[in-house]
Write a structure and sequence with these properties.
Distance between the termini: 30 Å
Order of helices and strands: HEEEHHEE
CATH superfamily: HIT-like
Structural class: alpha+beta
Helix content: 25-40%
Bound molecules: guanosine-5'-monophosphate
Number of strands: 5
Number of domains: 1
Largest sheet: 5 strands, antiparallel
CATH architecture: 2-Layer Sandwich
Oligomer: single chain
Amino acid sequence: MDYTYDPENIFAKILRGDIPNQTVFENDHALAFRDIAPQAAVHVLVIPKGPYVSLDHFARDASADEQVGFMQAVAAVSESEGVDAGFRAIANTRSHGVQEVPHFHLHILGGQQLGPMLPK
Ligand code: 5GP
């Protein structure tokens, strides 16, 4: 797999502070912010601060500290966003997964009853 990272992607610009975001949570290794086009009452994106293009890239190459920091951000979002009734976490990956932004991000969707995982 080619995991070449494009430093001009939109989430890299958010991490550099070039583009504003609505931050929900931040730690040393991850940033969580509201999706600009929410698809549920709660729609937060959790991203690592490191240059990882996809979930599999992050899982393969991120350090243990980065992976723990990322998952701690997921925990913080799930606690702060009022999704005790449940939520869905989605990592769209590359072409078949319809990934638009080539910086690993986990969508956290909830705050309402969600439909089937995939359209029938
Ligand atoms: P993907 O299709 O790559 O899994 O999801 C990319 C997500 O990023 C989409 O849900 C889209 O609405 C969101 N997005 C794209 N550009 C921006 C932006 O500039 N700011 C924020 N907050 N979200 C963005």
